User: What shape does this take?
Amino acid sequence: MLTAETIIQSIASGLLMGLLYGLIAVGLALIFGLMDVVNFAHGEFLMIAMYATFFLFAFFALDPLLSAPLVAAALFVFGAVVYLLVVRFAVRAKANAGMVQIFSTFGLAIVMRGLAQFFFTPDYRSVTHSWLGGKTVSVAGIFLPQPQLMGAAVAIAAFGGLYFFINRTDFGRALEATREDAGAVALVGIDKNRVFALGWGLGAALVGLAGAIMAMFFYIYPDVGASFALISYVTVALGGFGSVFGAFAGGILVGLVEAVTALVLPPSLKSVGIYAVYLLVVFIRPRGLFGSM
Amino acid sequence: MTALLETRGITQRFSGLVANSDVSISVGRGEIVGLIGPNGAGKSTLFNLIAGVFPPTEGSIWFDGQDVTHLPAAERCRRGVGRTFQVVKSFETMTVIDNVIVGSLARSTHMREARRKAHVMLEFTGLAARADVLASDLVPAEKRRLEVARALATSPKLLLLDEVLTGLTPAEAQTGVELVRRVRDTGVSVLMVEHVMEIVMPLVDRAIVLDLGKVLVEGKPADIVRDPKVISAYLGDRHAVGA
Amino acid sequence: MDQNFAKRRRRELLTAAMLVAAAAVVPLLVKDAYYQNIMVLTLMYAALSQSWNILSGYCGQISLGHALYFGLGAYTTALLFTKFGVLPWFGMLGGGVISAVMAMALGYPCFRLRGHYFVIATIVIAETALLLVQNWDWAGAALGITIPMHGDNWLTFQFPRSKLPYFYFALVLAAVAWFVTWWLEDSKWGFWWRAVKDNPEAAESLGVVVFNSKMGAAAVSAFFVAVGGGFYAQFVSYIDPESVMGFQFSLKMALAAVLGGIGTLWGPLLGAAILIPISELTSSHIGGSGRGVDLIVYGSLIVLISLARPQGLVSLFSRKKAPAR
Assistant: This one.
């Protein structure tokens, strides 16, 4: 029954989820904005973060909220390593650079999924007891699940922190400068590879945060990244490649659209709303909502 | 006899900036016309408007007696407008001959004929020996000639040359000048945007000077170079004599 | 100069003819049904990726949603056969035509998109179609369609006892896809596509109507992929949305062409010949345990080849050096 209450409830949940989507997408947008590479293993970064959170819980009884910073740090290292070992060579390709970048990261995604299956088995895992898990907060009659609420708060804080970092710190400015002209920064003594590696690390760390939060209310299995991957690409494209803010805004929009779609269409079709909105937006604005590339 | 190309009252605005203002020029059949002026005069904009890259904010463009104002670049090429690009846009992943074949396919539908025509164009521009070389492996001067060969392959009535002679060594520039003359001798009219005065003035039949988006003056090269308005536009008022 | 070119063309044709002849003999020597199955799939993917290559390789419009046309072809054939008794031969043709039209209809809004926006649009459209079919009861929804087998019959294109006819059909399909590519390479369309891929602005200045050329590439590409889909439906006798419209199909088609050499004549063939057997063999010998080792091998292969040979494996056979950029 579609009552005003259910609609508002949906919109609220959609907003919360959207902020998390935004957090995931921002990591992707950061990497793309930095070096024009779409990380097709982004979903697998999320998957690894979720597994890390799970194992910290399973072996050390660490609540996801506590392990979140650890997971983010681990993903930071992981992201930098992925750049140094794989992506660095992909962007050097003289022929078909676009395809090399797409397929090398795709291949990486498949390898990661295989490794996850190998080491963790395909079994579904979940963080069965967490401080916020399963609890809700009632705000004016609307029930907001606490994990998602925390996730939204973390997303906002992370985005704010990122904004501050990019615009107010030296390293952030180096990041922007490298984005604008990778060749020129070398002349000023900035090591392009270092900047890129750190950029990948940062992007991965943001996903790490999202993964730690999502471990509180999603099942964890080797292919979990795949479903979120497509949503994050669509989100970044919707917001416009080249705009970190666009990715965040896109995430919120996607979350809302997904929630509203679930109200009117059967649950298996909930992604169709997102896809339709994406197509609608780019047909009118071929560079996304805030895109510059 | 009607001019081959005519622009009537062309005004081009780009969100607040007026790049061209009420520009009316013409190019007659068999003429080589030079379009000159200081930086920011609006030459490139006018050039792109004639080539059909975008439609003008106001005014009309007539080619061979027909209104082509709202026709896109590909259609203008069909009608006989060929152009080169200031920043050379060769098909880097294709060989020299294949580059030109793309051009000749604008007129010939049969591959054999298109290929033969491409060979002729390569001979004409002196690139025959480099036919099977990848365009990306050419030196800049050769790439310029490839641009011309490619545009010529479309059998244009009017060839628009965008700074083809800029940045060449004196020897290369001379070869370029001879090439332009030979192009005109085959019956193709030429409208060329140029910066290098010493090279362009002896070449063109007529020169049109643009400044600040407007036509400043036009006429024979010998008169233009002495015109105080032109001198002051390029060098500033101090240098104008008898202003 | 022209003689060299004509010679090269003849040589290519001759090589293709010899390969077809050689391939035709193989199933008579290798009688194991398991290996024959792999061969049929390899040939099918050769045809699919060759067709994909026309739009995405030659014309440069990278599509990762071609499973849409594969699925369209498969479903058209299967539905026409099971619901209306239309022979699969007509079904495949019908599926091809419908897909060509669909490709152009989708191209109309999509071709104004560039780069990643276009790629994501293709993925998203294919996914949407998959989800819609999954919820469409008349088309079998998630359970799919089973094509009942009635015994060996060329009319209904069913051969429950032998893979040979499927093999030869797939061989013909791959050969036709190759030939069409070969023919188009030295045609107005082929030159237009390469020009559009390389530098659309320059192409326009030379009279190429960029939009039309993209539409043409899309239609041809979709047609053959759909015919392949119809073939697949008859080959496996059971289709469901996930198996014929899933993203992994789009990816595999593209992968074969990219690993072999995107935008080249022989690339997709070579890529399919290497990728598909490896994919099938690892999946059955190592993947059975469900421990993901096949994925690790498969994924690593993709990473290694794309990094080591970005222009594709076909460049190993080429005497021309790759474009220096």
Chain C has one domain: 2-317.
